[in-house]
Amino acid sequence: MVLIAALLVVNFSLLSIPSDTSDHEYSTIRLVEKPDVIRNLLNFEVETIAGDEIKILDRFEKEGYPKLVILSFMAEWCKNCNYEASFLGDIYRSWHNKGLEMLVIAEYSEPGKFELFVKRHSLPMPWYLGQVRLKDKEKRESTMHYRLRSILMDKRGWGTPFHILIAGGDGSKVYFVNGEFRESDLLFFLNEHLAETATTQD
């Protein structure tokens, strides 16, 4: 597993900022060297609040990928998820019409409580229920979220927030963030990948 992880991940710090030691859990945006592996694992079944089951990437695999997709794994009780949720909602509102799609996956959270989390932070992007609906350590290792984090050498306990970024318009480039986004990193990344679209539409 360690060897696989070493082959899959390339450190990709956009601004080379050292780790933050405050109460936040900031992390840099890093490139995955073998994107097909992660993208195939990502297309697992999730559920809407209405009970409909879908595969998270099926729409993009069938209809094509937008310029950038961000999948964010979150838990309603996670303080770091609460720190950045409203910021991510603002990012979606500002960049959605420029080629950004965002999906939130609720892990280790009761559906009703996560729905309140979504309302509290006014999240406008689609969100789905993940594979474990309680904060249950025994079931945590059965999730695709845990498997992805293990492959990408994320050593945190619960591992939320955790973000996967699929870029290139064809899913050819995959990045990840094992913690909160640094605002400057994400804005730099968005401008880099969506600048052409933004210029065309502005």
For the largest beta-sheet, the strand count, sense and barrel status come to:
7 strands, mixed
Q: Name the structural class.
A: alpha/beta
CA-CA gap between termini? 46 Å
CATH topology: Glutaredoxin
Number of helices: 8
Envelope shape: globular
Please tell me how large the radius of gyration is.
16 Å
Helix fraction bin? 25-40%
Low-confidence parts: 1-7, 12-21, 197-202
Order of helices and strands: HEEEHEEHEHEHEHHEEEH
Q: Please identify the top-level CATH class.
A: Alpha Beta
- Per DSSP E runs of 2 or more residues, the count of β-strands stands at 11
Q: What percentage of amino acids are in beta strands?
A: 15-25%
What is the domain total for the residues? 1
Q: Going across the biggest sheet, name each strand in turn.
A: 1-3-10-9-6-7-8
| Average residue pLDDT | 88
Q: Architecture, according to CATH? A: 3-Layer(aba) Sandwich
How would you describe this protein?
The protein has 202 residues and is α/β, with parallel strands linked by helices. The chain has one domain (2-12, 24-201): Glutaredoxin, CATH 3.40.30.10. It is 39% helix and 21% strand. It is built from eight helices and eleven strands. It is globular. The N and C termini lie far apart (46 Å).
